[in-house]
Design a protein that fits this description.
alpha/beta; 5-stranded parallel β-sheet; 20 helices; 23 strands; binds NADP nicotinamide-adenine-dinucleotide phosphate
Length: 654
């Protein structure tokens, strides 16, 4: 009999147990050349049930998201690969049924990978994410307990069909509620539908940049936008969400009707006409890095060539042989420049603030065939590979980002001893890549603490590009845009045929440009001003039955991928909806005092972290007053715990 980890439900194979394999020994040995040996070791325990594999050696350092061998020597790797072949062959010959491992042994495997024991809360969170038992523990199962007529009377509108809106759709379908997903775009994916500039790719490892219950075989460790779009299209098709989606349709406003306890949702159709929908619940999944922020530079409208925001890259643009001006070099600009540098005749990059970058040798690497094979076939190997990408960021929480009050941090060089050490490592990377070019080194080392803004990834492609003869990095401020180029404050005109504004997004303006009107006619905009906040990032007083995914205070500049957050927030929102439906109540609303306490706590925490440091003058994380309302200050396992079970005392159900 197969163990519980080999099957799920009615004898179905656990999807994480891998597809049974039939490869001969020689092919297995060949494939193993490409694998992560620590992940293989864990998979071998699943295959054999023998814990000796993790007990015979310890890893000398903790997981690293870019070193899939976690520091194992070449000899140790070869030894494991050699002994793994007969073990895998025996697993194959016995019918590919993994052994059932208890929680204690699974925790031991995690501790092996982490090279240290793991705190119980973190271990529980990671076990939930790894899903060794197969089924999705967050799948909504309460649908059948709600009478059909109550469900029929409880339509839900989801605004946005990006990553979190799709997830909301999956959960609402599981609950059996009627729902409509409205999206202004022509298809799913949100940010990945919109951002099609050359080089657009994730800068969070792909194997953790997907739903925990829907892993896939990414072709690259950090995959590019077409693959992400295809992933979301596949999920929408698999869960039958298309029938619920209204594309090219914009929500212009939502208004709470207190008398009927219903949200009146105003939408604009593709032909420009208006329509009204009623919803008992609204889930906003509009994203928070998708409203293009164009700079206000005099003369922008006089430019004679094509000019556009990076998220609006024209599909038919040919940059070959052009003089190309790239204004802004944050996450988007960093990806665009190296990809077009060899095509354009001249690339001028206008960078206001220098970026810290993380040396990442696998940033543009393809997943080799052997690793793909292991991900497909070896039991739970893919989960352990995800662990390698996920755990390093998660395990340190916000500790590396905390300002040490006893450290002389005021000059912005560093915020703590550890942060100084990080600066030195990152500086070393920059110096090594730009050796012999002191001019570029000087322009490439930031004057604020490491990690103070979102760190970007570099496998050398950015720094090596700066050395090219046709590339110029300009740090002089821009005075105006002329019809034929860009004029800097020193009066120099650099001619341009094309201008791309890679100038970021209006990150502080959550839910804009919709008008959201709650109880008593108060609008979200009035309630928030420049200080958007929401209890757990999910809901606000005066706005009953309205939930945000990726709301205020939940962006991650530390830790893992936003998919983790979405899964927690969506479950929390669905729990709240359940509370209303289960008691046939009208609405659920967070208590004002609970929200206030949370908001104060959020500010107290975030103000002690590097992103709020005063040495950072320009950052999309900060509001106009320099305060941070966008980011989460919580270690992800803490947030997992905070959102996991809705506390009825926090809410008014009426
Ligand atoms: P960003 O990181 O905010 O960078 C915007 C750039 O434009 C910065 O260099 C900024 O300079 C510059 N800029 C803005 N206004 C300017 C002005 N008036 N004059 C001159 N320069 C100006 O924006 P982004 O690159 O679009 O990225 C935003 C976020 O989107 C990222 O943090 C990330 O979360 C997400 N993103 C992710 C990926 C990915 O995963 N691969 C890719 C793209 C974006 P300052 O630094 O001085 O403000």
């Amino acid at each position: 009999m197969p163990g519980a980890q080999g099957t799920q439900g009615q004898g179905e194979r656990n999807p994480h147990a891998g597809e049974p394999l039939t490869d001969d020994d020689e092919s297995i040995a060949r494939a193993l050349e490409d694998v992560s040996v620590p992940a293989l070791i864990c998979s071998l325990v699943h295959m054999t049930g023998d814990p000796t594999w993790v007990r015979e050696r310890t890893l000398r350092r903790a997981t690293s998201m870019v070193d899939f061998q976690i520091g194992m020597s070449a000899d140790d790797q070869a030894d494991v690969r050699r002994r793994a072949v007969p073990a895998i062959a025996a697993y194959r010959d016995a019918g590919c049924e993994p052994a059932e491992l208890g929680d204690e042994l699974l925790d031991e495997l995690m501790a092996f990978m982490a090279a240290a024991p793991i705190e119980p809360r973190l271990a529980a969170m990671m076990r939930e994410d790894m899903r060794f038992d197969g089924p999705d523990p967050r799948a909504v199962e309460w649908g059948d307990s709600v009478p059909d007529d109550v469900k029929r009377r409880s339509p839900v509108v989801v605004i946005g069909a990006g990553e979190s809106g799709i997830l909301a759709g999956i959960r609402l379908a599981q609950a059996g509620l009627p729902f409509t997903i409205i999206d202004k775009n022509g298809g799913p994916g949100g940010t990945w539908w919109e951002n099609r500039y050359p080089g657009a790719r994730v800068d969070v490892g792909s194997h953790q940049y997907c739903y925990s219950f829907e892993p896939t075989e990414w072709t690259q460790y950090y995959c590019q936008h077409p693959e992400l779009r295809a992933y979301f299209e596949g999920i929408v098709a698999k869960y039958g969400l298309d029938a619920h989606c209204r594309w090219n349709t914009t929500v212009t406003g939502v208004r709470w009707d207190d008398e009927h306890s219903v949200w009146r949702v105003a939408i604009e159709l593709p032909d420009g006409s208006a329509e009204a929908l009623d919803a008992r619940f609204v889930i906003s999944a509009v994203g928070s890095l998708n409203l293009p922020k164009l700079p206000e530079i005099p003369g922008m409208d006089t430019f004679e060539g094509p000019s556009f925001h990076s998220a609006r890259w024209p599909a038919d643009l040919d940059v070959t042989g052009t003089a190309f001006a790239l204004i802004g070099a944050g996450a988007s600009g960093f990806q665009i420049a190296p990809v077009i540098a060899d095509e354009v005749q001249q690339l001028t990059i206008y960078q206001r603030t220098t970026q810290w970058m993380f040396p990442n040798p696998v940033y543009r690497a393809y997943v080799p065939a052997g690793n793909q094979w292991a991900i497909r076939h070896l039991p739970f190997y893919a989960r352990w590979f995800r662990f390698i990408q996920t755990f390093p960021g998660i395990s340190t929480g916000t500790t590396p980002f905390r300002v040490d009050p006893d450290y002389p941090h005021e000059d912005g060089n560093a915020i703590s001893e550890a942060n100084l050490a990080r600066r030195e490592v990152l500086e070393q990377w920059i110096r090594s890549q730009l050796d012999g070019r002191p001019d570029l080194i000087e322009r490439s080392i930031p004057d604020y603490p490491a990690s103070g803004k979102r760190i970007v990834q570099d496998d050398g492609f950015w720094l090596q590009m700066l050395r090219k003869d046709n590339v110029e990095l300009v740090h002089t401020g821009i005075e105006r845009i002329a019809p034929n180029g860009v004029v800097t404050v020193d009066g120099v005109l650099r001619e341009a045929d094309v201008i791309c504004y890679a100038t970021g997004f209006r990150h502080n303006e959550f839910l804009a440009p919709m008008e959201v009107t709650g109880r008593g006619g108060v609008t979200l905009r009035e309630q928030w001003g420049d200080e958007p906040s929401a209890y757990l990032g999910v809901t606000s007083p005066n706005f009953p039955n309205l939930f945000y995914l990726y709301g205020p205070g939940t962006n991650l500049a530390h830790s893992s991928s936003l998919f983790f957050h979405s899964e927690y927030q969506t479950s929390h929102a669905l729990d709240a909806i359940h509370r209303v439906l289960a008691t046939d109540a009208r609405s659920i609303e967070v208590r004002a005092d609970v929200h206030e306490r949370y908001a104060a706590w959020h500010q107290e925490e975030i103000s002690q972290l590097v992103w709020a440091h005063p040495s950072i003058h320009h950052s999309h994380y900060k509001n106009p007053q320099g305060k941070v309302f966008t980011l989460s200050p919580w270690p992800i396992d803490q947030y997992w715990e905070m959102t996991r079970e809705l506390d009825p005392d926090d809410y008014i159900v009426s």
